[in-house]
Amino acid sequence: MKTPVVDKDKCIGCGTCTVLVGKTFKLRADGKAEVIVPAGDEEKTIQEAIDSCPVQAITWKES
Ligand code: SF4
């Protein structure tokens, strides 16, 4: 199964992924996005968030 991973060093906390796929990503108190439910949204919707991240901080990990 593929799950999304956020590189916290790259994330600038713009919030785009949390708006597009709010079941999967959440902004933490430190302003960085984190994955709360790896399969919270459909894979193609998560892919949209990956494509929309301005700093390419989200990648897929095979698990
Ligand atoms: S879209 Fe990218 S930069 Fe913006 S909050 Fe999500 S992971 Fe961070």
The side-by-side strand order for the widest beta sheet comes to: 1-4
CATH arch. level architecture: 2-Layer Sandwich
Strand percentage? 25-35%
Annotation field: number of helices: 2
Can you tell me the CATH topology? Answer: Alpha-Beta Plaits
Low-confidence stretches: none
Q: How many domains?
A: 1
**Percentage of residues assigned to helices:** 10-25%
Rg over CA atoms, rounded to whole Å, is: 10 Å
Task: Name a few traits of the molecule.
single chain, 63 residues, alpha+beta, Alpha-Beta Plaits, two-stranded antiparallel ribbon, 2 helices, globular, binds iron/sulfur cluster, iron-sulfur, transport
Question: Can you put this structure into words, describing what you see?
Answer:
- Strands 1-4 form a two-stranded antiparallel ribbon. The chain has a two-stranded antiparallel ribbon with strand order 2-3.
- The chain is globular.
- It has a single domain (2-62), classed as 2-Layer Sandwich (Alpha-Beta Plaits), CATH 3.30.70.
- The chain is 24% helix and 25% strand.
- The chain has two helices and four strands.
- Strand 2 (25-27) and strand 3 (33-35) form a beta hairpin.
- The protein has helices spanning 16-20, 43-52; strands spanning 2-6, 25-27, 33-35, 58-62.
- It has 63 residues and is α+β, with helices and mostly antiparallel strands.
- Bound molecules: iron/sulfur cluster.
- Iron/sulfur cluster (SF4) is lined by residues 6, 11-17, 33, 53-55, 57-58.
- This is Ferredoxin.
- GO terms for molecular function: electron transfer activity; iron ion binding; iron-sulfur cluster binding.
